[in-house]
Structures are given as structure tokens and as C-alpha cells.
UniProtKB/TrEMBL annotation:
A Pfam family this chain is assigned to: Amidohydro_3
SUPFAM superfamilies with a match to the protein in the record: Composite domain of metallo-dependent hydrolases (SSF51338), Metallo-dependent hydrolases (SSF51556)
Biased composition (Low complexity): 517-530
The name this protein goes by in its record: Amidohydrolase
Region annotated Disordered, chain positions: 510-530
InterPro entries in alphabetical order: Amidohydro_3, Metal-dep_hydrolase_composite, Metal_Hydrolase, YtcJ-like
Domain Amidohydrolase: 59-543
GO molecular function, one term: hydrolase activity, acting on carbon-nitrogen (but not peptide) bonds
Length: 548
């Protein structure tokens, strides 16, 4: 694969011509070439027309058959926590409490004395007895230093005595356990203490690690879902400033806190956020038994935790809509989702359905949905910001979701096909570090959902992971390789391109050349995923392995 460059005429946007590849574009399903001027796509078409553009291009890239796609958008991330998992104590995949303790000891041995330590990713649901290490075991392994360890879903955590001692009154807070995972207010308080222990340099290094990893995976935009119970104002401001100052993916910020009027909305905007949503918690998570359900858990005698009621949700949505600010909620359980839809509908009655629909308010995760919920999402134009890798990790007949809900109820989780049939917009993401940044893996998880009736085509999932993320922030002019769109794209080394759907009748029709359906890589489980050669954001290369 080669590229050639010439000097740019002063005052003229730099032009790049990519040719002899496969360009995934709705403008021309058979395109092999694309021209970019500055930060916009200028043209998409065939080799014959590319010949006439080559002489005036500042750079000509011979793709040698590589695939060109729009860059992915990950619609739900936590950049600092993801970076800390990438560079620090990652407990993902630990098979026993003993393995967790071993990893802690190894990590502590290489860290300077006195610094607080953070880790992520433990999951006791498959461990013998289903129990995490005791606090005494953690104290010993950490050398009696402050240590904060989030469960894989980030809705509960373990902490050492030294960290708990930094939180006055923690033992009286809801969710405190003398020897076990912290949830609720106790968890939030300990999280704040752990967050405050990070230095500015540690935070920036973690954020850079996330942005570098995203760029290397062909991700051009990240939606940071921040909030007072998940991160901090300084963390969000720092991330947005870093992303604006250094080459890398775009970062769009959300701040999950209650808005009751124009003053609150202005404060959200002052933070640099485009919406009061993301992780504005209506409930918790299934793994931590804190998602709010209508019926009790299969493996616990309660229905989880409700953080917001329908009246509060209605007030938030109405105030955001009046201020022209997007609202959103974290809602996983059917009771929490019911509260959200009830509240949004009440807000629509107050300020007008058309105004509410125009704001494209969001629901993050939206997992345990009923048919009525899906109808309400369509009626209210709610965007479902979902994470297919959750099903890949914890779905199935014997997975963690089946343990929590029973197999029958677990089969109703994440009904992507039903959402699309109803016309509900989907935006795909990872919730990193809960699951890794992995866009092609996300598409695979959606197309090969563990419950077959919830599967969607790779093409539909691809649209939801590219254009869907842009539409979720109110932009309909981006996320596809068409003239005039932002020049956010990625180059991929991959195998044969196919049309992959849950129904082979659709596949047979779509692969007929007369259907003019552009192909995508084969994502059959077990096979390789495409290798990212270059990522470009607004015409600027942010990751490059093109000529290695």
C-alpha cells in the first residue's frame, strides 16, 4: 500500500485521494475511490473518475484493496476509568478470589508507596461460592494501602480499610457492608475518595491511553458519560480539554445530574457537556443486584434499587426540553425503564410531544424491555444507547443474566430486532471499561445475539455504530462516507466482504448485485476481525499503520 504527496497551495484545503479500494458508501455501493478536501468528504466514486482527480490531489493513497469505512462512534464510555484499566490493575477474567489477590500483590509491588491504587473488572458471579475476597484479604494483599476495585459493571466495589478510613461516616451510609461489596451511597462516597486520590498527571495519562486505544480501533468519536456519581466535574473538563488540544478521537460529553430549570441547564453547558444524561441513574445493574425490576431477582429476594421516580424524570425532561438541552437516563431494569417512559410521556404532555421528540432524549442500556416500553420509545423518539457486548459476556442459558433473572426472563434482554422494527434509533457503544473498546466485536455481538430472535444484520449494527452515534447527538450529516460529511473515516485490512444477516432469505437477496448493498467483513464468531490501518478525524490522521 503506497501514498504519494505533493505540496499544498496556500489558502486551499489539502486534498487527499484514496483509490483502488472498497469504499463503504451509500452514495455509491460500488465505489472504489474517495476524495477528501480539508475536513470534509468531497467525492465518492469509481476509478475512471479518480484518474481525473489524481493530478490535482495533494496526496494519493493506493489502497491496494483495503476497505474504507466511516469511523466508528462509541456512544457510551468512561475514558478515565478505561485508561486506568488499560494501564493499571485490570482484574478482568480473574477466575477466583485467589487470582484477584495475586494480581493485587503483583501490582502493588511495582507502585510507589503512599499512592492510592485503583483497579477494575472483578466478577464473582462465576467464582466458587460467588464471593469476592474479604476485606482482611484485600488489606493484606494491598499492603494496607488505600485500594478501590470496581466490579465489572462499575455499580459496586471493594475497598480496603485504608481507603474506607478516608471517608468519614461511610459505615452509616446505605449500601455499606462490613465485609463485602459496597453499593449505593456508600459506593459513591468511596468512589469520590478514590477519584480525589488521582493526580492530574495520572488522570491525563489514563485519558490519553483511552484515546490512543480508540483511535487504533478505528473509533473517531467517543461519548463520555460523566456525572457526580460516576466521575467528577474536573474529570470531564480535563478530558474535553485534552481531546480538543491533542490529535485523537472527538469526545462528546454528557453530565448525569438533575436539571430543574435554566440555571441548572446553563451549568451543564458550562461544563462542556451537550446533554444532562449519560449515567443519570434511574437504577443500577443486574450484576450488582441493583437494577430496578418489577418482579424480584431469581437469586435474591428483592427488586433492586430505584434512584429516580417518574415525577423527577418528568421534571428533568421538561426542564431540559425547555432549555434546548438533551436529557438522558441510565435505565436497565423493567421497572426503571417504565419510570423513564412514564416520566418522558408526562413531560411531553407538559411541553409538547413534538418538542420532546425533537430533542432525541436518550436511554442508556435499555436492557429489560417490554413491548409497551418499545412502543413508548418509538412514540417519544427516545434513542436506545445499547451495548451488545453485554449479551456476549453475560447472556445465554447459563450466563450471569440467567442467574440473576432466570432463563426465561433473561431471554427478553436486549431485544435489538424488535427495537429496530418499531423504528427506535439505536446507538451502539461499549460502556468501557465494563466491556472493552471493540467496535467490530460489538457488531458481532449484535448480529450473533445469544437469543436468535434479537439478532440484527451486520449492516444494521454497523449503521447504529456509525451514523447512529451521530444521530444520537442530533447530527444527521455525519457517520457515512458521502460528499459534504465530516472526513472521519478508517482504513482496514480485511478479508472478503459479504452481506451478513440473521435471515438467509435476506442474505440471498442482498448479495444479488441488483440489490446494490455494499458488503462488510465476515463477522462469523471465531474468525478474525479487520485490522485498522489508519484512522482519520476531521481530515486529520490520528492513528497510522498504513505503510508498516
Amino acid at each position: 500500500m503506497t501514498d504519494s504527496s505533493t505540496s499544498t497551495t496556500p489558502g486551499r484545503p489539502r486534498t487527499v485521494l484514496l483509490r483502488r479500494g472498497e469504499v463503504h458508501s451509500p452514495a455509491d455501493p460500488f465505489a472504489t475511490a474517495m476524495a477528501v478536501e480539508g475536513d470534509r468528504i468531497a467525492w465518492v466514486g469509481s476509478e475512471g473518475a479518480a484518474d481525473s482527480l489524481a493530478a490535482t490531489a495533494d496526496e494519493v493513497i493506493d489502497l491496494d484493496g483495503a476497505l474504507v469505512t466511516p469511523a466508528f462512534t462509541d456512544a457510551h464510555v468512561h475514558a478515565t476509568a478505561t485508561g486506568l484499566a488499560l494501564t493499571g490493575l485490570d482484574l478482568t477474567g480473574s477466575a477466583t478470589p485467589g487470582e484477584v489477590l495475586t494480581r493485587i500483590r503483583e501490582y502493588v509491588a511495582g507502585r510507589p508507596a503512599g499512592a492510592a491504587l485503583l483497579g477494575h473488572g472483578w466478577d464473582a458471579s462465576g467464582w466458587p461460592g460467588g464471593r469476592p475476597p474479604t476485606r482482611a484479604e484485600l488489606d493484606e494483599a494491598a499492603g494496607h494501602r488505600p485500594l478501590y476495585l470496581t466490579r465489572v459493571d462499575a455499580h459496586s466495589a471493594l475497598a480496603t480499610t485504608a481507603l474506607l478510613d478516608l471517608v468519614p461516616g461511610v459505615t452509616a451510609l446505605p449500601g455499606y457492608r462490613a465485609d463485602g461489596a459496597l453499593t449505593g451511597d456508600a459506593h459513591h462516597a468511596v468512589r469520590h475518595a478514590a477519584d480525589a486520590a488521582l493526580t492530574d498527571a495520572q488522570r491525563a495519562d489514563a485519558q490519553r491511553a483511552t484515546l490512543r486505544r480508540a483511535a487504533a480501533l478505528g473509533i473517531g468519536t467517543l461519548h463520555e458519560c460523566a456525572g457526580p456519581d460516576i466521575s467528577s466535574e474536573d474529570d470531564l473538563r480535563g478530558l474535553l480539554a485534552l481531546a480538543a488540544a491533542e490529535p485523537g478521537p472527538r469526545v462528546v460529553g454528557y453530565w448525569g445530574e438533575l436539571v430543574t430549570g435554566a440555571k441548572d441547564a446553563a451549568r451543564v453547558r458550562d461544563l462542556g457537556a451537550i446533554g444532562a444524561g449519560g449515567d443519570f441513574f434511574a437504577d443500577g445493574s443486574l450484576g450488582s443486584h441493583t437494577a430496578h425490576l418489577h418482579a424480584p431477582y431469581h437469586d435474591a429476594d428483592h427488586t433492586g434499587t430505584a434512584h429516580l421516580d417518574a415525577d423527577t424524570i418528568a421534571a428533568h425532561v421538561a426542564a431540559c426540553t425547555e432549555a434546548g438541552l438533551q436529557a438522558g437516563f441510565h435505565a436497565i431494569g423493567d421497572a426503571a425503564i417504565g419510570s423513564v417512559t412514564q416520566g418522558v410521556r408526562a413531560a411531553a404532555e407538559q411541553v409538547g410531544l413534538t418538542r420532546v421528540r425533537a430533542m432525541r432524549h436518550r436511554v442508556e442500556h435499555a436492557m429489560l424491555l417490554t413491548a409497551g416500553h418499545i412502543d413508548a420509545f418509538a412514540e417519544l423518539a427516545l434513542t436506545a444507547s445499547v451495548q451488545p457486548a453485554f449479551d456476549a459476556a453475560w447472556g445465554g442459558e447459563s450466563g450471569m443474566y440467567a442467574q440473576r433473572l432466570g432463563a426465561d426472563r433473561a431471554r427478553t434482554l436486549n431485544p435489538y430486532a424488535a427495537l429496530l422494527r418499531a423504528g427506535v434509533p439505536l446507538a451502539l457503544g461499549s460502556d468501557a471499561p465494563v466491556t472493552p473498546l471493540d467496535p467490530w466485536g460489538t457488531l458481532r455481538a449484535a448480529a450473533f445475539h445469544r437469543t436468535p430472535e434479537h439478532r440484527i444484520s451486520v449492516r444494521a449494527a454497523f449503521t447504529a455504530h456509525t451514523r447512529g452515534g451521530w444521530r444520537a447527538i442530533g447530527r444527521d450529516d455525519a457517520g457515512a462516507l458521502v460528499p459534504g460529511a465530516p472526513a472521519d473515516y478508517a482504513l482496514w485490512s480485511t478479508g472478503e466482504l459479504i452481506v451478513q444477516t440473521p435471515d438467509d432469505r435476506i442474505a440471498r437477496w442482498s448479495t444479488d448485485p441488483r440489490a446494490a448493498t455494499p458488503g462488510l467483513p465476515d463477522l462469523t464468531p471465531g474468525g478474525p476481525t479487520p485490522d485498522c490501518l489508519r484512522t482519520v478525524v476531521a481530515g486529520r490522521t490520528v492513528h497510522d499503520r498504513l505503510n508498516e
